[in-house]
Amino acid sequence: MATEERPSTFQVSVKHGEVAAHVWGRGPALLIALHGFALPADEFATWVPLLGNRYTICAPDLPFHGQTVWRKPFFTPTDMLK
User: CA-to-CA distance for 7 and 21, rounded, in angstroms?
Assistant: First the structure.
């Protein structure tokens, strides 16, 4: 990670796995950050120095990335629904 602040991390159970979500910052507004297919959600740690006082940044790891556990060989956006 590019910042020293460690995120708080929680898991969300969905039909085909456990989605990990990371939270940084302590701002009053919520910012949900979705990464692309090349990087995990912890790349958003670099945003904390600039945005962490204004936003609470929540970034889930998509299937096959970071700490998310996925039990299917593929996923579609519909798979992410509970």
Answer: 9
CA contacts within 13 A on the Cβ side of 50: 6
Please state the pTM of the whole predicted model.
0.81
CA-angle at 68, arms to 57 and 51, nearest 5° = 10
- Give dist(CA 54, CA 36) in Å, integer: 24
State how far the Cα of 65 lies from the Cα of 69, in Å rounded to an integer: 8
Q: What is the pLDDT of residues 32-44, one digit of tens each?
A: 999 887 788 988 9
Tokens (6 digits) for 15: 């039909």
Q: Measured between alpha carbons, how far is 82 from 78 in angstroms, rounded to an integer?
A: 9
